[in-house]
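Priority: medium. Attachment 1 of 2:
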């Protein structure tokens, strides 16, 4: 069940040309679906991801937690405030789907946010710099512009994803009993 859509990619993780006329919906949605599943598996592992999915439904075009699901699934999906395991200080897991409040031109706007979007942006920017051809990797030539390396933006997106991963790790560890005692080896999963 795809949660990401084009509205997640703005500001520091803006993906260009995502209007329906310029880019094939199918191609973008296939890649977002692939990267979304990868990110969920990295963050939750297969078992917990499958269990979470069993508590999700699509309603009015949005993926939401079923009303009759336990609070732990709502907290995992929408986020929750919790006391850190080691420090006892309050921490906040933002959830997989959250809305950031932004003040613009004197009006409050709500923008979608998800750690999954940071992973998808990272993967997109990693693989969209070149085109694979019969003669190898090729970078398209552009007129009146200069190609620049996007390592800083990729690194920033990856770091945001890892920061959210660490908060999620702390949230799950502090609520260990609620999530079936699932032990997640984040260092192995994230490769760091």
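Attachment 2 of 2:
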């Amino acid at each position: 069940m795809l949660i990401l859509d084009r509205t997640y990619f703005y500001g520091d993780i803006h993906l260009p040309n995502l209007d329906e006329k310029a880019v094939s919906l199918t191609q973008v949605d296939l890649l977002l679906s692939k990267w979304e599943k990868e990110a969920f598996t990295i963050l939750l592992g297969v078992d917990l991801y499958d269990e979470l999915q069993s508590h999700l439904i699509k309603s009015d075009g949005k993926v939401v937690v079923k009303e009759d699901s336990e609070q732990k699934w709502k907290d995992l999906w929408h986020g929750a405030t919790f006391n850190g395991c080691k420090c006892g200080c309050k921490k906040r897991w933002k959830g997989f789907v959250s809305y950031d409040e932004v003040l613009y031109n004197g009006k409050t706007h709500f923008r979608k946010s998800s750690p999954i979007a940071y992973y998808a942006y990272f993967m997109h920017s990693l693989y969209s710099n070149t085109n694979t051809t019969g003669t190898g990797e090729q970078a398209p030539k552009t007129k009146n512009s200069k190609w620049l390396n996007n390592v800083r933006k990729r690194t920033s997106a990856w770091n945001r994803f890892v920061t959210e991963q660490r908060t999620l790790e702390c949230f799950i560890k502090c609520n260990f009993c609620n999530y079936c005692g699932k032990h997640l080896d984040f260092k192995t999963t994230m490769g760091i």
